[in-house]
Amino acid sequence: MRLGIISDTHGLLRPQVFEIFREVDHILHGGDVGRLDLLVELEALAPVTAVYGNSDGFGIRAKLQQVAELELDGFAVVVTHGDQFGSPNPAKLHEAFPHAEIIIFGHSHRPLLQLVDRTVTVMNPGGAGAPRFGIPPSVGILELEAGIPPRGRIVNLRLDRRPT
Q1: Is this structure's pTM higher than 0.90?
Q2: 122 with 93: CB under 8 angstroms?
């Protein structure tokens, strides 16, 4: 199973995301969505599980949860924006969600892919919206296969295209 991982779009959905996520089976959005119709656009590619972030307004918060827990291809997955932990990091997230095998988060706009405790994969795909902190926008891809640890990568988004 191939997962598209995205966060911190803040209402911007770059055309490149459709190319990168073209063959994903499920999309996980780590919050700060910005607008609900962005999720509808992503759902044209694959089912979407999304959570709200600290910048999302009441309309989005009414439709999404702060934390989503699901099972994908036999893996226990948690998706959260992470702002409820101040500055989220893999250790804090693993402590908060000890049953999770995969934890997806956002908030910091800093891409991260880390193995914690040899069994838990933690990913922050970085911010897919407007660049912040001098960090280029990015998304992530996770490949799941029963019996082996998830394989993942961060994909930088080019800034030479105008976001929609």
Answers
A1: yes
A2: yes
